[in-house]
């Protein structure tokens, strides 16, 4: 087994919610709750879960934009703390992120040439002609013509603008790409084109993906393995096909049953979320038809009985054991 490229080891992230008159924190919110997971080089891991469950917070911690409250994150075997202290630039080159809304993440006042050049100037010591060469290469990879360099972001469609965001993320030849809802703002046919492009690029360039989405159908298309999150915790994980066919957590079941049409986004109400932050036990129990007293103790992730390996679920009453 190769060394994992990215590892989260019991990582927790808490945010201060309110401060009192003296500046002291009166309430903290646990956005990510002791999560442990990893992704191997060249793999594509999907992270799914409804709005507010902590997906982006995990991604932001993985690129060093947020620091964990506790636990450890390692990239290529070295802790992120060490990377940030010793080789922050190399970390930025090696780990890049693509966001949901390309129009918000591309500076509207800069032509694409400036956007890409700035990234190369920040992350590499390439000379002018090397930068030009790299810009050409990366535009070809995302299937955009060279004339794109002289245009502004607003002159592109949503799908084309997202290709530019992907080009910017790829230009430093990262080893890991965190894609945070990269196709959610696009219509279904454009989504399919971008997903195909991402799939081709993964095969061609060997980049490792962590792909965040609330849309299970999208994740199924691109990611051989998946984590399902609920209220900051991983509730189920494993090979995507297996997890879809033999979902074990009542929340995964709800997620899958809530997607009537492949490619259509899912939206679930999460009105209980606000009350969950300091509660003990399984966070899903208020919404779960199977919940009983045992669920006031938090279930831990464990191997699903009869699974072919790697399929884990955190539930006292997994569906596979239902009478
Ligand atoms: N800087 C912050 N300060 C306080 N709370 C925050 C902060 N960032 C995130 N949160 C809270 O942490 C929780 C998780 O947020 P996060 O953005 O990770 O969710 P998400 O799963 O990415 O949701 P979405 O699908 O809507 O993007 C949310 O309840 C959010 O309000
Ligand atoms: Mg998010």
Helix/strand layout:
Blueprint: E1 6-19, E2 25-39, E3 44-48, H1 55-62, E4 70-75, E5 78-79, H2 80-86, H3 88-94, E6 95-98, H4 102-105, H5 112-123, H6 128-141, H7 158-170, E7 176-180, H8 188-205, E8 208-213, H9 216-222, E9 225-230, E10 233-239, H10 240-245, H11 250-257, H12 273-276, E11 302-303, E12 312-313
Helix pairs in contact: 2-3, 6-7, 7-8
The protein binds adenosine-5'-triphosphate and magnesium ion.
The site of magnesium ion has 3 residues, from helix 1.
Question: If you had to describe this structure to a student in words, what would you say it looks like?
Answer:
With 323 residues, this protein is an alpha/beta fold. It has one domain: Rossmann fold (3-Layer(aba) Sandwich). It is built from twelve helices and twelve strands. α6 crosses α7 and α7 runs parallel beside α8. The longest helix is centred in the middle third of the chain and has 18 residues, at 188-205. The radius of gyration is 21 Å and the shape is globular. The protein binds adenosine-5'-triphosphate and magnesium ion.
Mean pLDDT comes to: 89
- Which stretches are low in confidence, meaning pLDDT under 50 for 5 or more residues running? 261-278
Oligomer: single chain
Strand order of the largest sheet: 6-7-8-3-9-10-12-11
> Ions, cofactors, ligands: which are bound?
adenosine-5'-triphosphate, magnesium ion
Reported for the largest beta sheet, the result is: 8 strands, mixed
Shape: globular
Helix % is: 25-40%
Overall radius of gyration:
21 Å
Structural class: alpha/beta
* CATH superfamily membership: P-loop containing nucleotide triphosphate hydrolases
